[in-house]
């Protein structure tokens, strides 16, 4: 198979290295002098999160400070990453409550289904992302830790426009 | 008639201080002091240059750059250095150990000792005599620089070969080819400077520019060739093929870690400093302050020393900035483009330029055009050569601009060339089946 010679007709303005180089240098110099830099100084300045941001979980509580969860078992059922561990219990009055409620944030894919499926609006994904730990075990959040989180929760939909119209 | 140049060289002595140079013990002490100061300044300067490189790259990309270590990131080089000293030294099993250890030293030492002959300020008169402001006053200064700077390629090639790694070897090979190709053009471009100064001592070259004016104007094309070759010599973009991160990982220093890697890094930056200093000395008057003769004549006071030093450093920093500016603007050349630019354009241009400059100097001297300043402090010799160079430079850039010599692809073929290529292609298609 012979090499096919493809001849491109290019005007000198397009093919000239000297002109391209000079205009490139001018462009970089303009950016060099540009006082408006794009860098955000992260720990001091933080990015504004979207109200729909799905981050670290949070368990909401009722007026008495107890978790709202009724241990219905919907969230471990829907969880695609299988990261929620729930052992239901029942008190003397027949109210169900979680004996064990643990979320492995390391396995979690932050899809937000647990919040969507929760009938009591108890478990939420939150507008928070700084959840680093020194060990893998540290990522397993128990009920106490989930209820003590204070960051704002995610709004999976706009309350003013719930159907997205 | 060429002897006129030698006579001209003698004239510069009128500016020399009547004070005798320092001798014996004071000379030794001053030399040791200069060695220590220059070495320290270069090492600290190189560290600061790494910071400057990162800052400038950041600014060009609309970022801020390192600003956490120390005020404005000033301690970043110290942090980097500390990290590199503490890091583990790795030795590849298959490496040739002796050469592997020798290579960083071989690229580090020539890079540092080249600066020894560069005059960086006006001489200083002291109680013991006149102190020349370069570490060594070699009468063959420029030849020394050509000799020593070409030693640097050994370090790179040995590093590439001894690592026993295909990427390192490719980097080393490319570097040897590139440095040897461009060294020729670099030396040839500098011959024009030597034609004007009539001397290879860098002090004499500076003195010539003080009387006549900076060489950048009368030797514009020489400067252009020298500048491009200096970029190639120091392996900086757009000629950084020996490193070529995207093709060769890190080229010749792929297998190096910790302080040995740092030594290559320091070598690259001190090569930049030396190449910049050389451009300043050969074409921008060295430590000369433009527009006045005050700095060149006795008495050589401390103020003159400091001011000329400041001017030298200012010019040096401009070229270092140019290096970085170009690095963060231009993409890398393809290997064949690099070679064709070096051999098919720079070398013939440099050779032709020697002939033209030599001829022009001869003609101007035959016409008895004076070298010294005459009309409003402008030397007629300087102006005449300058006008010739501007005309030549315009021609060169028009030729360069046609997009044949450096181009993304060979474009703009004439119909005749297209017919020729098609004929070759047709002939191959006939011959190929029989051949195989």
Poorly predicted ranges of chain B: 1-14
Instruction: Predict the CATH topology of the domain at 55-148 in chain A.
Output: Alpha-Beta Plaits
Structural class, judged by helices and strands of chain B? Answer: mainly alpha
Radius of gyration from the alpha-carbon trace of chain B, in angstroms: 24 Å
Radius of gyration of chain A: 27 Å
One letter per element, helices H and strands E, the order of chain B comes to HHHHEEHHHHHHHHHHH
Mean pLDDT figure of chain B:
82
Report on the biggest sheet of chain A.
3 strands, antiparallel
How much is the average pLDDT of chain A?
85
- How many strand units of chain A? 5
What is the CATH architecture term of the domain at 55-148 in chain A? 2-Layer Sandwich
- Taking pLDDT < 50 over at least 5 consecutive residues as the criterion, the unreliable ranges of chain A are none
Reading off the top of the CATH hierarchy, the class of the domain at 55-148 in chain A is best stated as Alpha Beta
Shape of chain A: elongated
By DSSP (H or I, 4+ residues per run), the number of helices of chain A equals: 5
Strand composition percent of chain A? 15-25%
Shape of chain B: globular
How far the N terminus sits from the C terminus of chain B, by CA atoms, comes to 64 Å
Fraction of residues in H or I helices of chain A: 10-25%
Notes on the protein architecture:
The complex is a heterodimer of chains A (165) and B (436). Chain A contains five helices and five strands. With 165 residues, chain A is α+β, with helices and mostly antiparallel strands. Chain A has a domain at 55-148: Alpha-Beta Plaits (2-Layer Sandwich), CATH 3.30.70. A three-stranded antiparallel β-sheet of chain A has the order 2-3-5. Chain A has a two-stranded antiparallel ribbon with strand order 1-4. The termini of chain A are far apart. The model of chain A has no long low-confidence stretch (mean pLDDT 85). Chain B has 436 residues and is an all-alpha fold. Chain B has one domain (3-435). Helix content of chain B is 64%, strand content 1%. Chain B is built from 15 helices and two strands. Chain B has helices spanning 3-11, 24-60, 76-86, 97-113, 141-149, 152-162, 166-197, 202-212, 220-233, 245-248, 258-283, 302-327, 335-366, 380-400, 415-435, and strands at 124-126, 129-131. In chain B, strand 1 (124-126) and strand 2 (129-131) form a beta hairpin. The longest helix of chain B has 37 residues, at 24-60. Chain B is globular and about 75 Å long. Chain B starts with a helix and ends with a helix. At the A-B interface, helix 1 and helix 2 of A face helix 2 and helix 15 of B.
């Amino acid at each position: 198979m012979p090499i096919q010679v493809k001849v491109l007709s290019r005007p000198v303005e397009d093919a000239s290295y000297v002109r391209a180089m000079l205009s490139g240098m001018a462009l970089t110099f303009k950016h060099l002098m540009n006082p408006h830099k794009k860098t955000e100084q992260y720990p001091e300045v933080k990015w504004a999160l979207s109200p729909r941001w799905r981050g670290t979980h949070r368990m909401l509580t009722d007026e008495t400070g107890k978790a709202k969860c009724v241990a219905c078992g919907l969230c471990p059922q829907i969880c695609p990453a299988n990261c929620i561990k729930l052992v239901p219990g029942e008190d003397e009055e027949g109210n169900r409550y979680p004996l064990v409620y643990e979320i492995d944030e390391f396995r979690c894919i932050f899809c937000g289904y647990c919040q969507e499926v929760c009938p009591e609006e108890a478990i939420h994904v939150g507008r928070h992302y700084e959840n680093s730990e020194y060990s893998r075990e540290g990522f397993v959040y128990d009920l106490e830790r989930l209820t003590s989180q204070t960051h704002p929760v995610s709004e999976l939909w706009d309350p003013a426009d719930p159907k997205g119209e | 008639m060429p002897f006129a140049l030698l006579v001209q060289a003698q004239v510069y002595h009128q500016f020399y201080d009547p004070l005798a140079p320092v001798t014996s013990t004071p000379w030794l002490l001053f030399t040791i002091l200069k060695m220590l100061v220059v070495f320290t300044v270069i090492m600290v300067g190189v560290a600061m240059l790494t910071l400057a490189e990162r800052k400038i790259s950041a600014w060009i990309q609309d970022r801020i750059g390192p600003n956490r270590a120390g005020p404005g990131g000033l301690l970043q080089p110290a942090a980097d250095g500390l990290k590199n000293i503490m890091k583990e030294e790795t030795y590849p099993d298959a490496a040739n150990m002796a050469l592997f250890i020798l290579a960083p030293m071989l690229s580090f030492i020539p890079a540092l000792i080249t600066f020894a002959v560069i005059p960086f300020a006006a001489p200083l008169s002291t109680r013991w005599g006149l102190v020349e402001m370069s570490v060594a006053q070699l009468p063959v200064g420029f030849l020394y620089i050509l000799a020593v700077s070409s030693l640097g390629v050994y370090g790179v090639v040995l590093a590439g070969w001894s690592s026993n790694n295909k990427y390192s070897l490719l980097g080393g090979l490319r570097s040897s080819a590139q440095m040897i190709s461009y060294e020729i053009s670099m030396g040839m471009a500098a011959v024009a400077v030597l034609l004007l100064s009539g001397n290879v001592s860098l002090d004499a070259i500076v003195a010539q520019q003080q009387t006549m004016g900076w060489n950048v104007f009368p030797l514009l094309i020489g400067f252009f060739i020298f500048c491009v070759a200096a970029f190639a010599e120091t392996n900086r973009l757009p000629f950084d093929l020996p490193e070529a991160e995207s093709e060769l990982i890190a080229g010749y220093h792929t297998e190096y870690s910790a302080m040995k890697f740092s030594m290559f890094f320091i070598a690259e930056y001190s090569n930049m400093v030396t190449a910049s200093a050389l451009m300043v000395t050969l074409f921008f008057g060295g430590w000369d302050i433009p527009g006045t003769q005050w700095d060149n004549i006795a008495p050589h006071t401390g103020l003159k020393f400091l001011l000329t030093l400041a001017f030298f450093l200012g010019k040096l920093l401009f070229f270092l900035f140019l290096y970085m500016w170009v690095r963060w603007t231009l993409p890398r050349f393809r290997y064949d483009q690099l070679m064709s630019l070096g051999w098919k354009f720079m070398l013939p241009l440099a050779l032709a330029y020697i002939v033209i400059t030599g001829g022009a100097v001869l003609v101007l001297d035959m016409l008895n055009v004076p070298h010294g300043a005459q009309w409003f402090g402008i030397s007629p010799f300087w102006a005449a050569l300058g006008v010739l160079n501007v005309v030549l430079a315009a021609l060169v850039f028009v030729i360069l601009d046609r997009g044949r010599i450096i181009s993304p692809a060979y474009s703009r073929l004439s119909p005749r060339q297209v017919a020729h290529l098609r004929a070759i292609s047709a002939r191959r298609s006939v011959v190929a089946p029989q051949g195989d």
